[in-house]
Amino acid sequence: MAEDIRSKIKNYQTPPFDSHFPNQNQTRNCWQNNLDFHRCEKTMTAKRGDVSVCEWYRRVYKSLCPISWVSAWDDHRTEGTFSGKI
User: In this structure, is the dihedral angle defined by the CA atoms of residues 23, 55, 48 and 81, taken in order, positive or negative?
Assistant: First the structure.
């Protein structure tokens, strides 16, 4: 499974269609992939697993989200005021 994920990451171009977010507005998709990345990273770190499997989520939210949002969320996370459940 990890090899399948690594091949998808290697061949990544743009985020594929996600039926959870069918509308043109991709704000929720951006937010959810950001949360999923940090949850995955936290879980894999706790289990001493390979964090590279979380790379897919990072690439998706980096391509969907405006840079200003990502930097603001990173600031909130470091300050301890982030509103999402990670």
Answer: negative
pLDDT digits (tens, 9 = 90+) for 2-20: 667 677 666 666 777 777 7
Global confidence as pTM: 0.77
- What CA–CA distance (Å, rounded) separates 61 from 77? 16
Of 40 and 22, the one with more pLDDT: 40
Burial of 10 (0-12, 13-18, 19+ CB in 10 A): exposed
How far, in Å, CA of 13 to CA of 36, rounded?
19
